[in-house]
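Listing 4. Sequential folding, example run.
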Amino acid sequence: MTDEKRGETFVMRGEARPATTESPIAFNTFIIGLASTALIHLGDTANPETGRKERNLELARESLDLLSMLREKTRGNLTEEEEKLFTTLLTDLRLRFVEASKR
């Protein structure tokens, strides 16, 4: 019999990097970042790489689906402030998606 481990998807080698002194990203900052991506794909905000507004409804839908999934997975685990922000962001983005789909 060997000491082989099965089922691992990766192997870590070397030393772990030391923790930084920077604060971890806040949840609100994280979801605002995801929402910004949706706004870019909806064509409401310029793409930072090109400087142009470009609409891609398929990618916008994927961003909304990602946010919706994250919303469901975090339900009941957020602060009141986080809940309110998340609900407001999703509602706004969904309305913008419907409007963009009509154009």
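-- end of first protein; second protein begins --
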Amino acid sequence: MRLVIIGAGFAGMYAALSAARLRDLQGISPEELEIEVVAPQPTLVVRPRLYEPKPETLTAPLLPVLEEIDVRYVQGTAETVDTRSNSVGIVTGGGERRTLPYDRLVLATGSRLFRPDIPGITDHVFAVDQLDDAVTLDRHLHALARQPASAARDTVVVAGGGFTGIEAATEMPARLRTILGDNAAIRVVIVDRNDAIAPDMGAGPRPVIENALRKVGVETRLGAGVASVDAGGVTLASGERIESATVIWAAGMRAAPLTQQIPAERDNSGRLLVDRALRVPGVGGVFATGDAAKAACDDIGNYALMSCQHATRMGAFAGHNAAAELLGVPTIPYHQEAYVTCLDLGDAGALFTRGWDRHVEFVGAEAKKMKQEINTVWIYPPRAQRDVALASADPERVTDL
């Protein structure tokens, strides 16, 4: 029997850990149930931290953990999924094409930044979505120091006033001061077509966010989206022109394109609709998890968000259930009633909320301490020690806040 997991992000990592845990509990050997993870590199990119400086350091090795739990790593990029022949077509790092058969498949391919059809967006924007994006931005920011001072050099525009945009923007003044010096006329502007900042966060946390933006000196342009981008800056739909050499796109996510090859229903973000076991209905042997899946968290209408908090727990349930089907033991329904947010606000601290109604629990330095613990401890892989790694993947305990 072979369980194949595509993706080594948070969902893929926990799918592998959880499947190996169940295999171990059932006394099944790795030869009887092979578990394989397909990814370009055996590395977890700590994606929630890519708004920070030195993004090249924000990764964690997975191979030692996978080897400890007898999960095979397959280096390559999955290009095709054939659900009729139960096979995955991959391209290895050396360009070789090969086919990998599966008995159960867990699609943990994550998401990608959505770039709409706006003039100049392809050639003139940066991002903090993927590791390469963040490294390119960081190098660009350091290269600004070699340019003469100007409004364009000293101005950063962040398109998107959601979670990612706010974290990128509030971190930016300190990053720029480190690079350009304290005397630079630094300006950071968030642009969003919504009429309020952080529209998904709701009205409760908004005053905290607005106060933090004022404290760190971040401006906002709300109710006016980006009309075009060029090498010198952005033009807004309102007609306003903002001179900037650094435009960061942080507006919207879509499931990775591989989900399009699964003959099943998807939502507007390209996520596959799944049942409570995280199976893709009507497609035998296929599970979807993390940002590739739209899954109900409870029975009152809340659905998992595109976040590592949801991806880790969803991954654990998907891996467990895919293995459970192969081993003939009951699956367990995914649920995630507890939900918190911890939003980094740069030098203004952070904001910690609990519940789907975003009740504010901590702000400022206290929330910042929690954010730093989340970012540097909680979301990293477990130790490469078999018992510790397997124990970390109990689906009922993963991200149980």
